[in-house]
Amino acid sequence: MSLWRRLALLMLCAGLGAGAVHADPNVMNPGSVVFDDSTPYSIGFKVPLIPEGSQDTDANENSSVSIRFRPAAGGSWRAGYPPLLVMEENIGNGAPHHEGRNYSGAIWDLQPDTTYQIEFTFTDPDGYNETRTVNHATRSEPRSGPQNPSTVNVSTLSQLRTAAQNAQPGQVITVAAGTYRASSGDDYVVEFRNSGTAANPIVLRCADRESTILDAAGEIWVVHMQSVDHLYIEDCTLTGALSRPQRSKTGFAVTAEGDTDGFVFRRNIVRGCDKGLYLKNFRKTNIDVVDNWMEGPISFPQRGTSGSEGIVIHGSGNVVAHNTMRGYGDSIGTSRAQESTSVMGPHRHMLWYGNVVEWSEDDCFEFDYAHGNIIATRNKCMNYNSCFSAQPTFGGPFYFFRNVCWSGGMSRHLKIAMAQSTYGPPSGLRVFHNLIGQTWTNYYSDSTWDYVQQNNLFVGAPGNTIVDSSTRFRGRRADSGNHPDATIDHNAYNDDGSFRYGPGNDASNFATFQSRTSFEANGLIDDTQIFATPPAELPSSSASTRFVSIVDPRLASAARSVDAGTPIPNISDSFAGSAPDIGPYERGDSLYPYGIRGWSFDSIQCSDGIDNDGDGNIDGADPGCANGNDPSERGDYAQCDNGLDDDSDGDHDFPDDAQCSTAADTSEETGGGGGDPTDPPSPPVSLRAQ
Fold first, then answer.
1. Strands (E), 304-393
2. What is d(CA 48, CA 115) in angstroms, rounded to the nearest whole number?
């Protein structure tokens, strides 16, 4: 062999790891691994398939990529969920960001500030096999404070604004208890324009969370940031931010304009604002929104499209975790960006976990207009219009697993829509191990590419339609028909009713549905006592105006859903029995700590805008409310409103006990008399499932 031929062969072999040239267009040509910004518990990546001129490689799309990972310091390998082949043609010509065809994916349940060894195995039967190992690290959790702190104490609004204006890295602005109220015509309570550093962030810390109040007093923003990095806001109450249409301004508790990196918002109370956190547009990276109690302006059970949003977050490497939320139209999500992608970049790789949404007028979790590797896991969402939304998504993948969705009325589990005709259908949705508790499940309309749904538990009131979806669940390409590549299997349903997964795929019972379609060959009807601790009530059509909740969604040992799932890498590849359990929990798991951690906040039921005790009365109209500061809608002496079964007949309170004509009746035996005003008051009934 000539020297030149030897050199050419060596160059070809060396180039296989970063985009070699192949004569056959059917052979895959993977480029170098590109990592997204990491979170403390997950790593996202993509591997572009490099075209040869105008010709795509892997033109016949029969390649595959598998991954496994372990700590770089050593340990056992663990399989990752297979990356998704992102099809450029499925994104749509009008989409705001195109990256070409690529394999995209993520790994999760990792440790903070740890380097991992990730092994990629590329396989193409047309003649390509390669194993490639790369190292990448998770980022650390937010610091507890600056490495070199200096304290600035403030006790007036003027001092607060001056301290923020002059803030330097490492400074901790400590705000004394009191109310810091904006004046008429102000845009904000406080504004930051200076940045901290990763080691020495600027910290705004309130002395007492409930009595240190930053009040916009009807103006636009409580906190405004302009191109600020490494700012922490901790332990404050933010209120009073209202929209001003005449000034073309929208009221947010916090808004961040320009690029923002390393922002931390934790252990705060947000209430009395039209909207919550506006972390949108430009480049938003490495943000943590954790352990906050956030209440929007919407009263339960209001329905519609108010436009009120809790947390709107764009960018990469961002975390939204363990927040307790209610009263927003859309609670947590991405949205359409205003800037071009050359300014903003794509929305890739965020981690949302441990959040509780008590009620949401529209969507709890929105993946709308995001580009891939968004992970929503171990959240609890109740009393919603849609549990999560893909309207639309671009490329993918999008992971939604081990969540609890529990709502009454005609609610939707998943909203799938194109949003505009210029965009292609949503693609790359991965829906695993969730509890879907609602009257019926509607997947809305339009199509979705490359959809996978496995090991989910659907629970509704018996006798209702189980699934009624007009969505076409398609494979990865437009020419693949309705659903030959979509995977819907190993899911359980608590009732045998009518099913429709897409046009023409309908049946009056589950067995007929299985025989007519390629779906649910291993699915089942679980009409046992499913939960070890049964919920107070199943979602039903009458619950659309009543608050429904579930405290413990773990399975009973005799439930058919036990050991009935299929192993899913990085999600349910470790299990106790012969197979994974269907639903969000494996038997023997501890109950996950949903919502805020490390502190508590008791809301005032008599001024929160909902019917907490289910008697048809709200706040001041409820006979159990002495005044607007009364923490419980339960009556202190009226047996028909105290939360107890006083006459031991199996029913309690109005309207369940037949002897109670109103919630104000003092006796469950006679309706009118019999109550003793000297009886000790009933304990307040918390709205939140802890």
1. 309-313, 318-321, 324-326, 328-333, 348-353, 356-357, 360-366, 372-377, 380-382, 386-390
2. 23
Q: CA-to-CA distance for 276 and 553, rounded, in angstroms? A: 29
Which tokens hold the place of 246? Answer: 């005449």
Under 8 Å between Cβ of 430 and 398: yes
* Confidence class for position 625, pLDDT limits 50, 70, 90: confident
Burial of 466-488, coded b for 16+ CB within 10 Å and e otherwise, reads: bbbbebbbbbbeeeeebbebbbb
Tokens of 2: 């000539």
Q: How remote is the C-alpha of 29 from its chain's centroid?
A: 35
Task: Please give the radius of gyration of the chain, using alpha carbons only, rounded to the nearest integer.
Answer: 27
In three-state secondary structure terms, 89 is helix
Alpha helices, H only, 591-646: none
| Token representation of residue 142 | 């937010």
For the stretch 448-507, pLDDT in tens is 788 899 999 998 877 766 777 777 776 665 444 444 568 899 999 998 888 888 777 788
Which helix (H) or strand (E) segment is 181 a member of?
strand 178-181
Q: Taking a C-beta distance cutoff of 8 angstroms, is the pair 491, 582 a contact?
A: yes
Residues with Cβ within 8 Å of residue 261, at least 6 apart in sequence:
229, 230, 283, 284, 285, 286, 287
Bond before 301 cis per omega within 30 degrees: yes
Three-state DSSP class for 179? strand
Distance, CA of 242 to CA of 251 (rounded, Å) = 4
Q: What is the pLDDT of residue 544?
A: 65
| pLDDT for the residue 426 | 81
> 53-91: per-residue pLDDT in tens?
767 788 888 899 999 999 999 999 999 999 999 877 666
User: What is the chain's length?
Assistant: 690
Structure tokens at 453: 């749904």
Pick the range with the lowest mean pLDDT from 258-267, 323-332, 348-357, 480-489. 480-489
Phi and psi based region of residue 538 (left: phi greater than 0; alpha: psi -120 to 50; beta: remaining): beta
Instruction: Write down the residue that tokens 């959809």 correspond to.
Output: 451
Q: How far apart, in whole angstroms, are the C-alpha atoms of residue 309 and residue 311?
A: 6
Pair 253, 238: CB distance under 8 Å: yes
pTM of the model: 0.85
Six-digit token pair at 239?
């209120």
Tokens 């269907």 locate to 582
**Distance (Å, whole) CA 372 – CA 437:** 27
Tokens 């440790």, residue? 111
CA distances from 298 to 11, 245, 379, 686 (A): 63, 19, 21, 19
| Buried b or exposed e, range 179-207, using 16+ CB within 10 angstroms | ebbbeeebebbbbbebbbebebbbbbbbb
Residues paired with 71 in a beta bridge: 116
